[in-house]
DNA sequence: GTCTATACTGCGATAGAC
DNA sequence: GTCTATCGCAGTATAGAC
């Protein structure tokens, strides 16, 4: 029992090591410019071992995607538990995304920039993924309880979160002069003003 | 003279044929999933002929990029000539982009969705490209002449154009229920309200 | 489970006839 | 200028020892 638990911890550690390297390389050079030998070199894990833990290169990309979709969902769930009002929830989600972008830019680069459809056959576009669906649900619930004025659900979601996501993209592209966090106040006040009831 | 002019027309025709096929294939499957044989098959132009007109596969992607950057710049220039006020210019630019998206979705898919940095070594991110710079200049000039209230230039540009670009992305991803044009009125009125002086 | 060595495939690019 | 045939190689995935 103790042994098998140690084994599974090791097993997970190798997987995480490979995923961490894949995240770094995919975010920096893209999926297609990253070869298995690249991952071998960067992670220190051998080809054979990688193929023992993952069925193929695509499987690595999928596991990585799932890992960070889950990470973003957790982030949103935590905020939904801590805050009741849609206004606070939206604001804190944006702050959390900004913070994630500055602390782990590669996560956001892989999740937002990568065209997953090009290599993951049956993945939905990122904006249809669970975390983004839930962000829209937060906005819709704000419309139901009267915090946000009645309007098309897509439009209100874009008004609330679209600007923040664009700034994250700008930051990842390196075209912002100031750090991301300095844009928050102006961004949030105009975003919220455009939708509040 | 007549002959050389015919020749150069033919020369251009072959180039355009190849570029049209490349646009179709790159937009649909991405640059890396499109092989030279794919382009040969789709365009009906032979491998040898393609390599006679283009130095390599990357050169095709660059020519395609330049062609449509120029197309978008022309579109903006025309609008700047026809309209004086920043409000009208911004509105017409969005309408033109919507119209282009519905009439030539592959152009917008290639220009907005493709991660050109992954294969074009020294290209700037699309949002730093000339057409997008000029869109921001239109907004800045609106701030100077008092149509748009004073605020960070990046923020005002995102407020004006960010929502429209997000909706274009949604449309290309196929997650909108209604045709793109039906979102314009609601989108434009909230976008302009958020920046007008 | 992890390693090295290698088999196999498909692509980008070229050669050379016409 | 256009074509067919083919070279060379990079990269995925496997085989098989340890």
Give an account of the 3D structure.
The structure is a homodimer of 197-residue chains. In chain A, α5 (86-103) packs across α6 and α5 packs parallel to α8. Chain A folds into 2 domains: 1-54, Arc Repressor Mutant, subunit A (Orthogonal Bundle), CATH 1.10.10.60; 66-193, Tetracycline Repressor, domain 2 (Orthogonal Bundle), CATH 1.10.357.10. Helix content of chain A is 72%, strand content 0%. The termini of chain A are far apart. The model of chain A has no long low-confidence stretch (mean pLDDT 95). Chain A has 9 helices and no strands. The longest helix of chain A is centred in the first third of the chain and has 28 residues, at 2-29. Chain A is mainly alpha-helical.
